[in-house]
Design brief:
The chain is mostly helical and 380 residues long. The chain has 18 helices and no strands.
């Protein structure tokens, strides 16, 4: 029993911490009808729907299919590395950073084993991780913190774009420059690149399902941009997915949803304690950039976004902070743990090497983007 609990805590640490915080705060603020007003139901519904749709795309092998098509054009290791990093960067804008890494990290490991160039893997995996975390900041649906803050703030896309696109563009330029210094060695066993790639559009049924998931994604985007309500979208997506492939409901990260609920309860209760509310407002309000970056290093950027949003009115600056804050420590973005787990599983004796390279590159990006952010905010 103890071993199971330890394994569960290790796998769902953030959820367990959020649950403990919610329970502790519930002893201070006794549960009542106001608890029902705490959660942002729109964000929860959107996150649930998007996880279902992305699981649908993944079940068809779409990402591997198009990834394989792009990789066929790679003539050397430099281009191959660039393709893989750009796949993570741009795909994360739609399928989220964690799904991009879950999809393309194993794909990268497979390819480089086949071409017998595992010596080039470590740096590439780290850059793919950074690419997924920073590429995902460019859209409201790229990661959970964007989805929540964009939904909760009521900001328009122009305001959102101003908060994230300059840093996404800078990170893309730095990634390309970093990869340009890679040696352009010829790819041996080039045909191996297509191994394991799913024939996503191999039959008419798969094509129909693909079109259905694209349509459902469009419905979610209408909710994101506040054109339609989240309730009919939730019903529509759930019903169609149940009919098309009900197994996809098993792919939803329900603990992530519960983590959001627990943090909503914790923050809602803190705001009802006058002394704590005033103290946290004084600490966060006016210092969103520094608070968001530092908090992300310790509790990761998704919980930091939920926690700090309750104590500031400048959610635009907070979006910038928690996205940049996803760089730095391994836990600054929980998506980074996915890359670490995949790499450590294949190369358990290189865990410390991964940590060193990961920390070095993350600190480099963090310093550059933080400097850019502090410069922009002081000039405006």
């Amino acid at each position: 029993m103890a071993a199971r609990f330890k394994a569960f805590f290790k796998g769902e640490t953030v959820f367990c911490v959020s649950l403990v915080l919610a329970l502790i705060s519930s002893f201070i603020v006794i549960p009542d009808s106001l608890y029902l007003s705490y959660p942002d139901y729109r964000t929860l519904a959107l996150l649930f729907c998007l996880m279902l749709i992305v699981a649908g795309f993944k079940s068809l092998g779409i990402f591997e299919f198009f990834g394989g098509r792009l990789l066929k054009k790679a003539g050397d290791l430099r281009k191959l590395s660039l393709f893989l990093v750009l796949l993570c960067f741009f795909s994360s804008m739609i399928i989220t950073n964690d799904v991009a890494l879950i999809t393309f990290i194993p794909f990268t490991l497979l390819i480089f084993k086949m071409i017998e160039r595992e010596d080039r893997l470590l740096k590439l995996i780290v850059l793919e991780t950074i690419a997924a975390n920073l590429g995902s900041m460019a859209t409201p649906i790229g990661n959970p913190q964007n989805l929540y803050l964009f939904s909760a703030s009521g900001m328009g896309y122009q305001e959102f774009a101003f908060a994230v696109l300059p840093y996404a563009l800078s990170s893309l330029i730095i990634l390309i420059i970093a990869l340009c210094f890679e040696k352009a060695e010829a790819v041996q066993a080039k045909a191996a690149i297509n191994a394991g790639v799913s024939a996503a559009l191999g039959d008419r049924g798969s094509l129909y399902r693909l079109l259905m998931y694209i349509l459902l994604l469009f419905v979610c985007l209408l909710v994101v941009f506040r054109i339609i309500s989240f309730i009919p979208a939730l019903i529509c997506v759930s019903l169609i997915v149940f009919i098309v492939n009900k197994k996809l409901f098993c792919s939803v990260d329900y603990f992530l949803l519960l983590t959001f609920v627990c943090f909503f309860i914790f923050i809602g209760n803190l705001k009802r304690i006058p002394e704590l509310n005033s103290a946290l407002m004084a600490i966060v309000d006016g210092h969103e950039l520094l608070a968001g970056i530092l908090a992300s290093q310790v509790i990761s950027n998704v919980p930091a976004a939920i926690l700090l949003s309750g104590f500031t009115n400048d959610l635009t600056l907070l979006i910038t902070a928690v996205n940049i804050g996803g760089l730095g420590t391994l836990i600054a973005s929980l998506a980074s743990l996915i890359a670490f787990k995949f790499y450590a599983h294949e190369y358990p004796f290189k865990k410390m090497s991964f940590m060193k390279v990961f920390t070095l590159w993350n600190l480099l990006f963090l310093l550059v983007l933080s400097f850019q952010a502090f410069l922009f905010t002081n000039l405006i």
